[in-house]
Specification:
This protein has about 190 residues and is an alpha+beta fold. The protein is about 35% helix and about 25% strand. The protein has a 4-stranded antiparallel beta sheet. Strands 3-6-5 form a 3-stranded antiparallel beta sheet, with no helix packed on it.
């Protein structure tokens, strides 16, 4: 593994210089936990695929369908890439990080900072437009996951929207900018 630099838009809680994060097979993200909570429901729906009963999707169930398919394909066909459920999303350039920061703020997502990181781990950059809304059709989910991991060209107009996943040992080396947008009153008091 080669050490690299990247930028991260901080949306969970403020970070500090020297802070270290490790993502690996043991240390996973909150996405992993949320998907695991819904995995039994996904398995039941897949097992009941022949049923004509409609599936009621909420956001987190659709994410679970997508992320379980993404991990199945990654583990089987692209094992050298970091898992989406055990990684940090970063940007290779400050300009890309600024773009994601603007999107998060526009979406109303709490956004604290942009930080510079060193990463000693695996790295995958792909077109976020190849992310998809998971469905109850397992074959479709797996096909779409293959498109994501293989960086298939996205049909239609527009430039790729680069998303980069990293795992391994990650350290905050600089606070580039404090944003503090869309914070709840209690989050603002914690700082």
């Amino acid at each position: 593994m080669t050490q690299r630099f990247a930028f991260h838009v901080v949306t969970d809680k403020p970070m500090h210089v020297g802070q270290q994060i490790v993502f690996d097979e043991v240390n996973r993200s909150g996405v992993w936990r949320r998907v695991q909570e819904r995995a039994p429901e996904v398995a039941r729906i897949y097992a009941d695929a022949a049923s004509d009963r409609p599936v009621e999707f909420d956001h987190h169930l659709a994410v679970a369908f997508r992320e379980l398919a993404m991990e199945d394909v990654r583990a089987e066909e692209f094992p050298d890439y970091p898992s989406r459920r055990s990684s940090l999303y970063v940007s290779g350039t400050l300009a890309d990080a600024e773009g994601w920061c603007s999107l998060f703020v526009d979406w109303g997502r709490p956004t604290y900072q942009i930080v510079r990181l060193t990463i000693d781990g695996r790295w995958f950059s792909g077109d976020a437009r190849n992310c998809f809304v998971g469905t109850a059709d397992r074959a479709t989910n797996l096909d779409l996951a293959r498109r994501y991991w293989s960086n298939a060209e996205k049909a239609g107009d527009g430039q790729p929207i680069l998303e980069t996943l990293v795992d391994g040992r990650i350290e905050v080396v600089e606070i580039i900018r404090t944003v503090n947008a869309n914070l709840s009153p209690s989050a603002s008091e914690e700082q």
